[in-house]
């Protein structure tokens, strides 16, 4: 067995870059050399949150802004812990202390600020982060800033903004974004915001665009897409709490998106708008939530323009067989699919086993199918593992027998980790775990 001393630092660096935080903490306590190599990964991410004790939280912040630790921080998330019910009086004092200390994180690349009442000091101190490239502002608010016009622009390439609360003020941010710098933009529908974008220059380098907008509102504002002609990945999210366009639908036919989004390679959005994007020649991948095969089928079948889509990800609580049959009709070059059957209750867990039997029996796939992934999630925290996983091998054998190009199938059940106590206090975002999974290769 080779001695640890013979392993190059570069190899340890590559290994540590893939380890979770708990494993890195154990490595950090082993020996001096591994401690030095693992330290940049251990302190790469900082979650600043509220606390029941102002003194403890302040000491924690002082540790992170110290000259030894702060240069290692690359990502920072400012977000309250849900279990403490918001920031509260203690939290607001902490936020002021954090905003005043922001300049210590000179090597920060990615900053997310969520559910925060920020102040003018925060807006100004952002300009003191020379390496900041990604900024997310989500559901934050503040009073008007008096000397806003005197601030320099933000030198960032990725910006995400979501304002579902009053006094969120997109005016604090968008006039200072350099359109020639941005590569990723995520925004909600906002009348002031859309007017500001339409009245200015285009965003020539945005390749990933995400719009949180109702389908009806998008149809009335399709001209916004012409400002993002370089978009390669388009994501449309529909938030019910976002304001709807008061003018309603325009009544005019949609503009030809093949001319507007000539580089679009991936569409992530409502199935009901698929007919607008399907004719785009460059489109190769679809991600469709809540697919209902019977809806819009005549409209999709009437599209005469050939498409070159090969990959899809979709989820549904309806007929999986109907979805596969639909894709065979509208996507002739389909080779890869990731399908999710979601929100299965205790009484419907048997549907997964029936699905695998039906697929093995009917094989409703195109001749070009090469990879298939099927997963499902439950509506509660019951595991439903008494009977074990479905017969993945039987489905694999049927697929390999009929389709010469088929290579692999994956199947597994998903659950929320926070429902069974696997979360720590520094990370309350949703996580998915796996009850059981099986990946089978044909060769």
Description:
The chain is of the alpha/beta class and 443 residues long. The protein has 14 helices and 15 strands. The chain has a 15-stranded mixed sheet with strand order 1-2-3-4-5-6-7-8-9-10-11-12-13-14-15, covered by helices on one side. Strand 2, helix 5 and strand 3 form a beta-alpha-beta unit. Helix 1 crosses helix 3, helix 2 runs antiparallel to helix 3 and helix 4 runs parallel beside helix 5. About 9% of the residues have low confidence.
Keywords, please?
alpha/beta, Monooxygenase, 15-stranded mixed β-sheet, 14 helices
| Assigned CATH class of the domain at 1-42 | Mainly Alpha
Number of DSSP strand runs:
15
State the CATH topology of the domain at 1-42.
Monooxygenase
Specify the overall morphology. globular
Topology at a glance:
Layout: H1 9-16, H2 21-28, H3 32-42, E1 45-48, H4 54-64, E2 75-78, H5 88-101, E3 110-114, H6 120-125, E4 134-138, E5 158-162, E6 184-188, H7 191-198, E7 208-212, H8 215-219, E8 233-237, H9 257-260, E9 266-268, H10 274-277, E10 285-288, H11 297-301, E11 311-316, H12 320-330, E12 336-344, H13 350-362, E13 371-378, H14 392-402, E14 408-416, E15 432-441
Organism: Mycena albidolilacea
Protein name: F-box domain-containing protein
InterPro entries: LRR_dom_sf (IPR032675)
